[in-house]
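[Q] Does anyone have a clean C-alpha coordinate version of this?
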Amino acid sequence: MSDRKNWRRSGRALALLGTLLSAAPALAAGGVALDVRALPAGEVQALERDIRDFKATHPGAFEALRTVRGCSEAGYRAARNPVPNCSRELRRLGPGVLLPMLEALALREPAGLASSEAEKRALGHALLQAIGVARDPRALPVVEAVLLRGARRDAETLAYAGEAIGLIGTDTAVALLVRHSAAGDALRLPAIAGLGYARSLKTARHLVGLATQPQPPEDLRAIARSLGVLSSSWAWRAMGPKADSLGQQVRAEAAGALATLFVLHGGDVREEAGKALLMAALPGTRAMLTSMRSLTDADGARAVDKFLSDYKRLLPADPL
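[A] Here you go.
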Protein backbone atom coordinates (compact mmCIF):
# COMPACT_ATOMS: atom_id res chain seq x y z
CA MET A 1 0.00 0.00 0.00
CA SER A 2 1.40 3.41 -0.98
CA ASP A 3 2.17 6.17 1.50
CA ARG A 4 -0.48 8.33 -0.21
CA LYS A 5 -3.20 5.71 0.50
CA ASN A 6 -2.05 5.43 4.09
CA TRP A 7 -2.31 9.22 4.51
CA ARG A 8 -5.80 9.23 2.93
CA ARG A 9 -7.02 6.49 5.30
CA SER A 10 -5.45 8.22 8.28
CA GLY A 11 -7.11 11.46 7.25
CA ARG A 12 -10.54 9.80 7.02
CA ALA A 13 -10.04 8.16 10.41
CA LEU A 14 -9.09 11.48 12.02
CA ALA A 15 -12.10 13.18 10.42
CA LEU A 16 -14.39 10.43 11.71
CA LEU A 17 -12.85 10.73 15.20
CA GLY A 18 -13.40 14.48 15.13
CA THR A 19 -17.05 13.99 14.17
CA LEU A 20 -17.58 11.49 16.99
CA LEU A 21 -15.91 13.76 19.52
CA SER A 22 -17.92 16.77 18.47
CA ALA A 23 -21.13 14.76 18.74
CA ALA A 24 -20.30 13.38 22.20
CA PRO A 25 -21.90 15.14 25.16
CA ALA A 26 -19.61 17.51 27.03
CA LEU A 27 -18.31 16.30 30.37
CA ALA A 28 -20.26 17.70 33.29
CA ALA A 29 -18.74 20.62 35.12
CA GLY A 30 -17.67 20.20 38.69
CA GLY A 31 -16.03 21.91 41.62
CA VAL A 32 -12.99 20.88 43.60
CA ALA A 33 -14.88 18.24 45.60
CA LEU A 34 -17.94 17.32 43.58
CA ASP A 35 -18.98 16.32 40.09
CA VAL A 36 -22.07 18.40 39.39
CA ARG A 37 -23.89 15.22 38.33
CA ALA A 38 -23.81 14.13 41.97
CA LEU A 39 -26.41 16.81 42.72
CA PRO A 40 -30.06 16.44 41.66
CA ALA A 41 -30.86 18.59 38.63
CA GLY A 42 -33.29 20.69 40.65
CA GLU A 43 -30.61 21.46 43.25
CA VAL A 44 -28.16 22.48 40.53
CA GLN A 45 -30.71 24.78 38.90
CA ALA A 46 -31.63 26.38 42.23
CA LEU A 47 -27.97 26.87 43.16
CA GLU A 48 -27.11 28.32 39.74
CA ARG A 49 -30.04 30.73 40.06
CA ASP A 50 -28.99 31.83 43.54
CA ILE A 51 -25.39 32.31 42.38
CA ARG A 52 -26.46 34.31 39.33
CA ASP A 53 -28.71 36.59 41.38
CA PHE A 54 -26.08 37.04 44.10
CA LYS A 55 -23.33 37.78 41.57
CA ALA A 56 -25.46 40.54 40.05
CA THR A 57 -25.76 42.31 43.40
CA HIS A 58 -22.55 41.24 45.18
CA PRO A 59 -19.77 40.89 42.61
CA GLY A 60 -17.21 41.74 45.28
CA ALA A 61 -17.88 38.43 47.05
CA PHE A 62 -16.64 36.50 44.03
CA GLU A 63 -13.63 38.81 43.68
CA ALA A 64 -12.84 38.23 47.37
CA LEU A 65 -12.71 34.48 46.83
CA ARG A 66 -10.26 34.94 43.97
CA THR A 67 -7.80 36.70 46.31
CA VAL A 68 -7.21 33.51 48.33
CA ARG A 69 -3.65 32.31 47.76
CA GLY A 70 -2.78 29.78 50.46
CA CYS A 71 -3.78 26.76 48.35
CA SER A 72 -1.93 27.87 45.21
CA GLU A 73 1.74 26.99 44.84
CA ALA A 74 2.75 30.62 44.41
CA GLY A 75 0.90 31.53 47.59
CA TYR A 76 2.08 28.88 49.99
CA ARG A 77 5.64 28.89 48.67
CA ALA A 78 5.81 32.65 49.18
CA ALA A 79 4.57 32.15 52.74
CA ARG A 80 7.19 29.40 53.22
CA ASN A 81 4.58 26.78 53.97
CA PRO A 82 5.53 23.22 52.95
CA VAL A 83 1.92 22.30 52.12
CA PRO A 84 -1.10 24.19 50.74
CA ASN A 85 -3.48 25.55 53.37
CA CYS A 86 -6.03 28.32 52.84
CA SER A 87 -8.49 27.48 55.60
CA ARG A 88 -7.84 30.62 57.64
CA GLU A 89 -8.11 32.86 54.59
CA LEU A 90 -11.46 31.39 53.60
CA ARG A 91 -12.92 31.55 57.10
CA ARG A 92 -11.83 35.16 57.34
CA LEU A 93 -13.97 36.01 54.30
CA GLY A 94 -17.08 35.24 56.36
CA PRO A 95 -20.57 33.96 55.55
CA GLY A 96 -21.11 36.65 52.90
CA VAL A 97 -18.99 34.55 50.54
CA LEU A 98 -21.04 31.38 51.02
CA LEU A 99 -22.42 31.21 47.47
CA PRO A 100 -19.04 31.76 45.78
CA MET A 101 -17.65 29.00 48.02
CA LEU A 102 -20.48 26.61 47.12
CA GLU A 103 -19.86 27.35 43.43
CA ALA A 104 -16.16 26.53 43.86
CA LEU A 105 -16.88 23.38 45.85
CA ALA A 106 -19.58 21.91 43.61
CA LEU A 107 -20.01 23.62 40.25
CA ARG A 108 -16.85 25.21 38.86
CA GLU A 109 -13.23 25.04 39.95
CA PRO A 110 -12.05 28.63 40.39
CA ALA A 111 -9.09 29.57 38.22
CA GLY A 112 -5.82 30.28 39.99
CA LEU A 113 -6.74 29.05 43.47
CA ALA A 114 -5.33 25.52 43.12
CA SER A 115 -3.70 23.46 40.36
CA SER A 116 -2.27 20.15 41.58
CA GLU A 117 -4.34 17.40 43.16
CA ALA A 118 -2.84 18.16 46.58
CA GLU A 119 -3.73 21.84 46.20
CA LYS A 120 -7.28 21.05 45.06
CA ARG A 121 -7.74 18.66 47.96
CA ALA A 122 -6.53 21.32 50.40
CA LEU A 123 -8.84 23.89 48.81
CA GLY A 124 -11.77 21.47 49.14
CA HIS A 125 -10.99 20.93 52.82
CA ALA A 126 -10.75 24.67 53.43
CA LEU A 127 -14.02 25.31 51.62
CA LEU A 128 -15.79 22.64 53.69
CA GLN A 129 -14.45 24.17 56.90
CA ALA A 130 -15.48 27.71 55.96
CA ILE A 131 -18.90 26.59 54.71
CA GLY A 132 -19.48 24.69 57.95
CA VAL A 133 -18.55 27.69 60.07
CA ALA A 134 -21.12 29.76 58.16
CA ARG A 135 -23.81 27.38 59.53
CA ASP A 136 -26.16 28.16 56.64
CA PRO A 137 -28.79 25.48 55.88
CA ARG A 138 -28.61 26.35 52.17
CA ALA A 139 -25.26 24.59 52.07
CA LEU A 140 -26.57 21.26 53.35
CA PRO A 141 -27.53 19.64 49.99
CA VAL A 142 -24.08 20.41 48.58
CA VAL A 143 -22.12 19.23 51.62
CA GLU A 144 -24.31 16.14 51.91
CA ALA A 145 -23.50 15.31 48.28
CA VAL A 146 -19.78 15.68 49.04
CA LEU A 147 -20.15 13.19 51.90
CA LEU A 148 -22.30 10.69 50.02
CA ARG A 149 -21.14 11.04 46.41
CA GLY A 150 -18.11 13.32 46.41
CA ALA A 151 -15.33 13.11 43.86
CA ARG A 152 -12.75 12.53 46.60
CA ARG A 153 -13.35 9.63 48.99
CA ASP A 154 -10.28 9.92 51.22
CA ALA A 155 -10.90 9.82 54.97
CA GLU A 156 -9.84 13.44 55.56
CA THR A 157 -12.21 14.91 52.97
CA LEU A 158 -15.10 12.81 54.29
CA ALA A 159 -14.33 13.90 57.86
CA TYR A 160 -14.41 17.58 56.86
CA ALA A 161 -17.74 17.01 55.12
CA GLY A 162 -19.15 15.31 58.21
CA GLU A 163 -17.93 18.15 60.43
CA ALA A 164 -19.49 20.76 58.14
CA ILE A 165 -22.82 18.94 58.31
CA GLY A 166 -22.57 18.88 62.10
CA LEU A 167 -21.86 22.61 62.18
CA ILE A 168 -24.88 23.33 59.96
CA GLY A 169 -26.72 21.48 62.72
CA THR A 170 -30.32 21.46 61.49
CA ASP A 171 -32.58 18.56 62.42
CA THR A 172 -32.12 17.20 58.89
CA ALA A 173 -28.33 17.49 59.15
CA VAL A 174 -28.19 15.74 62.52
CA ALA A 175 -30.55 12.99 61.36
CA LEU A 176 -28.25 12.35 58.39
CA LEU A 177 -25.24 11.95 60.68
CA VAL A 178 -27.11 9.77 63.16
CA ARG A 179 -28.24 7.50 60.34
CA HIS A 180 -24.70 7.00 59.05
CA SER A 181 -23.21 6.55 62.53
CA ALA A 182 -24.70 3.05 62.70
CA ALA A 183 -22.34 0.09 63.02
CA GLY A 184 -21.19 -1.20 59.64
CA ASP A 185 -22.01 1.97 57.72
CA ALA A 186 -19.23 2.93 55.30
CA LEU A 187 -19.52 6.57 56.42
CA ARG A 188 -19.61 5.82 60.13
CA LEU A 189 -16.37 7.54 61.13
CA PRO A 190 -17.02 10.86 59.33
CA ALA A 191 -20.59 10.80 60.67
CA ILE A 192 -19.34 10.33 64.23
CA ALA A 193 -16.84 13.16 63.69
CA GLY A 194 -19.61 15.42 62.50
CA LEU A 195 -21.84 14.71 65.50
CA GLY A 196 -19.28 16.33 67.77
CA TYR A 197 -20.00 19.68 66.13
CA ALA A 198 -23.79 19.44 66.51
CA ARG A 199 -23.97 20.74 70.06
CA SER A 200 -27.21 19.48 71.55
CA LEU A 201 -28.31 17.19 74.37
CA LYS A 202 -29.81 14.79 71.83
CA THR A 203 -26.48 14.49 70.04
CA ALA A 204 -24.62 14.01 73.30
CA ARG A 205 -26.93 11.20 74.36
CA HIS A 206 -26.60 9.49 71.00
CA LEU A 207 -22.79 9.53 71.25
CA VAL A 208 -22.94 8.38 74.87
CA GLY A 209 -25.12 5.48 73.74
CA LEU A 210 -22.53 4.53 71.13
CA ALA A 211 -19.76 4.75 73.73
CA THR A 212 -21.49 2.21 75.98
CA GLN A 213 -21.84 -0.42 73.24
CA PRO A 214 -19.16 -2.95 72.22
CA GLN A 215 -17.19 -1.26 69.45
CA PRO A 216 -13.92 -1.75 67.55
CA PRO A 217 -11.12 0.33 69.11
CA GLU A 218 -10.95 2.62 66.07
CA ASP A 219 -14.64 3.45 66.45
CA LEU A 220 -14.29 4.02 70.21
CA ARG A 221 -11.44 6.43 69.55
CA ALA A 222 -13.61 8.34 67.09
CA ILE A 223 -16.48 8.44 69.59
CA ALA A 224 -14.18 9.70 72.35
CA ARG A 225 -12.75 12.37 70.06
CA SER A 226 -16.23 13.49 69.05
CA LEU A 227 -17.36 13.63 72.68
CA GLY A 228 -14.36 15.84 73.44
CA VAL A 229 -15.26 18.27 70.66
CA LEU A 230 -18.91 18.25 71.75
CA SER A 231 -18.08 18.96 75.39
CA SER A 232 -15.26 21.49 74.85
CA SER A 233 -15.45 24.04 77.66
CA TRP A 234 -13.89 26.67 75.40
CA ALA A 235 -16.51 26.14 72.68
CA TRP A 236 -19.41 26.40 75.14
CA ARG A 237 -17.97 29.58 76.67
CA ALA A 238 -17.72 31.07 73.19
CA MET A 239 -21.47 30.50 72.75
CA GLY A 240 -22.21 32.96 75.57
CA PRO A 241 -24.18 32.91 78.84
CA LYS A 242 -27.41 31.78 77.18
CA ALA A 243 -25.77 28.44 76.41
CA ASP A 244 -24.52 27.84 79.97
CA SER A 245 -27.33 25.58 81.14
CA LEU A 246 -27.34 23.41 78.02
CA GLY A 247 -23.55 23.33 78.03
CA GLN A 248 -23.43 22.00 81.59
CA GLN A 249 -25.85 19.20 80.72
CA VAL A 250 -23.99 18.22 77.54
CA ARG A 251 -20.58 18.35 79.22
CA ALA A 252 -21.81 16.24 82.14
CA GLU A 253 -23.24 13.56 79.84
CA ALA A 254 -20.07 13.50 77.73
CA ALA A 255 -17.64 13.51 80.67
CA GLY A 256 -19.37 10.54 82.29
CA ALA A 257 -19.02 8.49 79.12
CA LEU A 258 -15.41 9.61 78.62
CA ALA A 259 -14.47 8.67 82.19
CA THR A 260 -15.94 5.21 81.62
CA LEU A 261 -13.99 4.83 78.35
CA PHE A 262 -10.81 5.93 80.12
CA VAL A 263 -11.22 3.46 82.99
CA LEU A 264 -12.44 0.41 81.08
CA HIS A 265 -10.27 0.61 77.95
CA GLY A 266 -6.55 0.84 77.43
CA GLY A 267 -4.22 1.94 74.66
CA ASP A 268 -5.34 4.50 72.12
CA VAL A 269 -8.92 4.55 73.40
CA ARG A 270 -7.75 5.57 76.89
CA GLU A 271 -5.40 8.15 75.43
CA GLU A 272 -8.17 9.70 73.30
CA ALA A 273 -10.62 9.68 76.21
CA GLY A 274 -8.05 11.44 78.39
CA LYS A 275 -7.54 14.19 75.82
CA ALA A 276 -11.29 14.61 75.55
CA LEU A 277 -11.71 14.86 79.34
CA LEU A 278 -9.18 17.69 79.33
CA MET A 279 -11.21 19.42 76.60
CA ALA A 280 -14.41 19.05 78.64
CA ALA A 281 -12.70 20.36 81.81
CA LEU A 282 -15.80 19.54 83.83
CA PRO A 283 -15.62 20.29 87.58
CA GLY A 284 -15.82 17.01 89.45
CA THR A 285 -13.82 15.02 86.91
CA ARG A 286 -11.16 14.03 89.46
CA ALA A 287 -13.78 12.78 91.90
CA MET A 288 -15.55 10.86 89.14
CA LEU A 289 -12.37 9.07 88.04
CA THR A 290 -11.38 8.36 91.64
CA SER A 291 -14.73 6.69 92.27
CA MET A 292 -14.29 4.52 89.16
CA ARG A 293 -10.71 3.51 89.93
CA SER A 294 -11.77 0.20 91.52
CA LEU A 295 -13.45 -0.89 88.27
CA THR A 296 -10.20 -1.36 86.38
CA ASP A 297 -7.10 -3.57 86.64
CA ALA A 298 -3.70 -2.63 88.05
CA ASP A 299 -2.52 -1.04 84.79
CA GLY A 300 -5.75 0.91 84.56
CA ALA A 301 -5.44 2.07 88.18
CA ARG A 302 -1.92 3.36 87.49
CA ALA A 303 -3.22 5.15 84.38
CA VAL A 304 -5.99 6.76 86.45
CA ASP A 305 -3.48 7.90 89.10
CA LYS A 306 -1.16 9.40 86.50
CA PHE A 307 -4.02 11.15 84.74
CA LEU A 308 -5.32 12.56 88.03
CA SER A 309 -1.87 13.95 88.79
CA ASP A 310 -1.58 15.50 85.34
CA TYR A 311 -5.18 16.73 85.48
CA LYS A 312 -4.58 18.54 88.77
CA ARG A 313 -1.59 20.29 87.25
CA LEU A 314 -3.27 21.17 83.93
CA LEU A 315 -6.71 22.07 85.30
CA PRO A 316 -6.15 23.31 88.86
CA ALA A 317 -9.52 25.14 88.87
CA ASP A 318 -11.41 21.86 89.25
CA PRO A 319 -12.82 22.26 92.79
CA LEU A 320 -13.31 18.56 93.35
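[Q] Thanks! Anything notable?
[A] The chain has a mean pLDDT of 90.
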